[in-house]
Automatic annotation (TrEMBL):
Its main location: cytoplasm. It is found in: Cytoplasm. The keyword Ion transport does not apply. Interacts with 100S ribosomes. InterPro entries: HPF/YfiA_ribosome-assoc, HPF_long/plastid, RHF-like, RHF/RaiA, Ribosom_S30AE_C, Ribosom_S30AE_C_sf. Required for dimerization of active 70S ribosomes into 100S ribosomes in stationary phase; 100S ribosomes are translationally inactive and sometimes present during exponential growth. One of its GO terms (biological process) is negative regulation of translational elongation. CDD domains: RaiA. GO terms for molecular function: ribosomal small subunit binding. It comes from the Bacteria. Residues 125-177 form the Sigma 54 modulation/S30EA ribosomal protein C-terminal domain. This is Ribosome hibernation promoting factor.
Amino acid sequence: MDIRFTTHNAKIPAEMKEYMEGKLGRMEKFFSRILDMQVAVKTDKKDFVTVEITADANGVVLRGEQRDPDLRKAFDLALKVLERRIRRHKEYLIDRAQLKAHDVSFGYEDTAAQAEPESSYSGVRIEREKVVEPHPMTAKEAALQMELLGHSFFIFVDTDSGHPALVYRREAGGYGLLKIRA
């Protein structure tokens, strides 16, 4: 397993790097599908450290992120989040192998959004831009991938229709699915 470290306004002491590599090395024994891991360490203006651990488990991306003033504590907390997501993914794979699919409900509501005045949009600023390459999968698999990443939505290509789609977490609970006609 390959472990890469990246930093932004931060330095990782050698002993801390060894500690991280040791902890991450044990993850491979826990879940053998992990091919590589990336640890990103960032320090903000308030001297808080953000640690983001991303694992590639044979095409499935799992991520844990935490923020704390102490680097070791931020790493340990991020690792706990990642372990929880790996455990959830491992259970999913076991359930799927036993043909016990998780029941993911997709709710649809026909509610018209109340339009805001145009002036409220004048201050909209795009802070970050990402280019994504959506992969073919079912809506249930996309919902699981979204949960494993800790995101509130996930873009994918629906295997049934071949069209792009988006699954999202609803505020009222459950999941929603947007199908995009191309």
